[in-house]
Every structure is written in C-alpha cells, then in structure tokens.
UniProtKB/TrEMBL annotation:
Family note: Belongs to the terpene synthase family.
A biological-process GO annotation: isoprenoid biosynthetic process
Protein name per the record: Terpene synthase
EC number: 4.2.3.-
InterPro entries (alphabetical): Isoprenoid_synthase_dom_sf, Terpene_cyclase-like_2
Lineage: Eukaryota, Fungi, Dikarya, Basidiomycota, Agaricomycotina
Gene3D superfamilies xrefs: Farnesyl Diphosphate Synthase (1.10.600.10)
Keyword Lyase: yes
Cofactor dependence: Mg(2+)
Keyword field: Lyase, Magnesium, Metal-binding
This protein's record includes keyword Metal-binding: yes
PANTHER family named in the record: BETA-PINACENE SYNTHASE-RELATED (PTHR35201:SF4), TERPENE SYNTHASE (PTHR35201)
Domain of life: Eukaryota
Length: 354
C-alpha cells in the first residue's frame, strides 16, 4: 500500500463523542451479558477461525460481549447469544479484508464471500465447511426460527450490500483511491453493515412491522441518520488502528484528501458533522407520521432499540482496546491520541492485535 497523499503528525486530540450522541440516545446494559458471553464464545471456538492463543487475544481486545450487552439491552438470553454470535462472525469476517494480505485484493475478498452468498436463500442448504460461511449459516438459521420473513429478507439484502461494499473497499485500497465525500458516505453505511444491524435489532426484540413502514421517506431518513451516527465515530476511534495497518479508507482520511485538511482539522470537522447528524435525527423523529396505534407502538419499540444500539455502539468504541489498546478515553472530555507505528502485516502478538 502506498503512502497517503498527506503526512500525519505524531498525535491528535479526540473529543468525547459519547456525550454528543448521548444527548439523543439512551444507554442501558443487558443483565444477561455474561451468560450470553460464555455460550457464544464456546460457539465461536467450534469454528476454529483462530488458534487458541489468537482467539484469546482477539476476544480480549474486542470486548464484543460488552458491545452486545450495551447494544441489545432488552434482548432475552437466546436472542442476545445470537446477537453476540453475529458480532463474532461480522468482525472476524470484516478483519479478513480490513487487515493483512486481503486488504488490497478485491478478487480474493469476493471469493471468500461466495460460499456465504450461496446459502442465503436456501433454508435446506447444508452447513458449509468454510468457517465464516458456517457461522453465517447458523446465524441465518436462528434468525429464521423466530424472526419475521421481512426481518430475514432485510438481513439477506443487507448482507449482499455489505459483501459488495467490502469488495469495492478492497478495490479502492488496491488503487489508492479516495472516493468523493458523498460516495464514501453511502459506501461506508454498507461497509459497517448498518442495515444488517437494523435487522438484528428487529430480531433481538421480535419486532413485527409491515413492509410499508420501512418504505416511508422519514423512516428511511432516520435510518440513514443513525447509520451515520454509529459509523462516523467508528472512523474517529479506529483511525489510529487503521493508519497503523496502512488502511486509509477512513472518513478522516477522505475529509483530509477532499478538503486539503490536516489531521486535527479533519477530526474536528467529522466531530461537528456527527453533532449535526444527531440533530437531524431528533428533527426527523418529530416528523415521523403515524401508522395507527398498534404499529406506532411497535415502531417506537424498534426505534428505542435502534437508539440503544447506536449509543451502545459509540460507548463500546471508547471502551474497546481494539481501538485504543491501553488508553482509556471513556468519560474524558478529550484525550490526546498518540499515533501507533505503522505495521506492514497483521500481527498476532498482544501488542498489535487490537
């Protein structure tokens, strides 16, 4: 991977985004988090994605159980286990293309997704041998068992969009392409899997809404706002990790490139953009039409669940050694982030596996 068309300083200041998003979104924690963690870890280890040492490091630095506990606070135990399994699958799959040898190899990224695409619409398909597809096969089975057909259909379409965006992102890396800002925003909603998350919120709460609700323009605009609000803080928090991995498909870098900003200016600009999107969501929510008392009540449950996920997501970013290693920024008004040294390959020792 070539060097980016700008140089990074040794550090930058990161504000507390949790306070910005927390002005509109609530935060809770699922009491069944520890029970779900134990069951989901045993499930994940069965697929032998990593060796024992690597698995311990990856799970320790990820703190994915905290992510699930904060993001699905009202899910009952079996649903929470599935949501945590979803995180294990999603992050381990995403890391294949975000780190190491597949960063800049779109054809190989696409090949890795083919086994998963083949099982999406075949409930009678046998569990694949490829471990990432095998994990997805079991998650799909669980979603079908209690979710509505609409929930399952939305998850499948979201997977296809996410899969395609992973390939496009690898292609951008391969040719050192920095997409225009608006193009990147649309692609980033897909690469983070925001629509899959929305389907998992549906699943976690056994939400049952008619399809026409999901087609309402205000509903769609609210969905786009929460997608950006959960995504853009990720780019702020993961920037250090990604620049060390030689990955510049990050909104901070896109803003630097588009507007010829230095690092701190781009970080500050993205921080302000997040605040604007939070206000957009608040304003849109006031304009959401009524669909009748029963549907409105179910829709309220869905939006509370999505708001909980969004805030839980941002708090997890600030809590996870995956992004900050030994630094603990949660609860601080701002923190000075010292840039990690660049690494050429994906490391497996505990100092780099984050």
């Amino acid at each position: 991977m070539a060097c980016p068309p700008f140089e990074f300083p040794p550090s930058f200041v990161l504000r507390n985004i949790c306070d910005i998003t927390g002005s509109a979104f609530g935060l809770k924690r699922n009491a069944a988090q520890e029970q779900a963690k134990q069951a989901a870890i045993q499930w994940f280890k069965r697929f032998r994605v990593f060796d024992e040492k690597k698995a311990r490091q990856w799970l320790h630095y990820g703190r994915f159980d905290l992510f699930a506990g904060l993001s699905f606070p009202e899910a009952e135990l079996s649903h929470l286990e599935t949501c945590l399994a979803f995180f294990f699958w999603a992050f381990s799959t995403d890391d294949l293309s975000d780190e190491g040898e597949l960063q800049c190899k779109p054809d190989e990224v696409n090949h890795g997704h083919e086994a998963s695409r083949r099982i999406l619409n075949d409930p009678d398909a046998q569990q694949p041998d490829y471990p990432y597809a095998a994990m997805l096969w079991d998650i799909l089975r669980r979603i079908r068992s209690t979710g509505t057909p609409g929930t399952y259909r939305r998850f499948v379409q979201a997977y296809l969009d996410w899969s395609g965006s992973q390939v496009q992102q690898a292609s951008n890396r391969n040719v050192d392409r920095f997409p225009p800002v608006e193009e990147f925003i649309l692609m980033r909603r897909c690469t983070i899997g925001a629509a899959m998350v929305e389907a998992m919120v549906e699943y976690s709460l056994d939400i049952d809404l008619p399809d026409y609700v999901f087609e309402d323009p205000i509903f769609i605009a609210m969905s786009q706002a929460t997608s950006d609000i959960m995504t853009w803080p990720n780019d702020l928090c993961s920037f250090n990790k990604e620049q060390a991995d030689g990955d510049y498909q990050n909104f901070v870098c896109i803003l630097q490139h588009a507007y010829q900003l230095d690092l701190q200016e781009a970080v500050d600009m993205l921080t302000e953009m997040i605040g604007t999107r939070v206000q957009d969501y608040v304003d849109l929510k006031k304009r959401l039409p009524s669909f009748g008392p029963e549907i409105d009540a179910e829709l309220s449950r869905y939006h509370i669940g999505l708001e909980n996920f969004t805030q839980g997501c941002v708090v997890w970013y600030y809590s996870s050694p995956r992004y900050f290693r030994e630094l603990q920024p949660l609860g601080k008004e701002q923190v000075l982030i010292e840039l990690f040294p660049r690494v050429d390959t994906y490391q497996t020792d505990s100092s780099e596996d984050s």
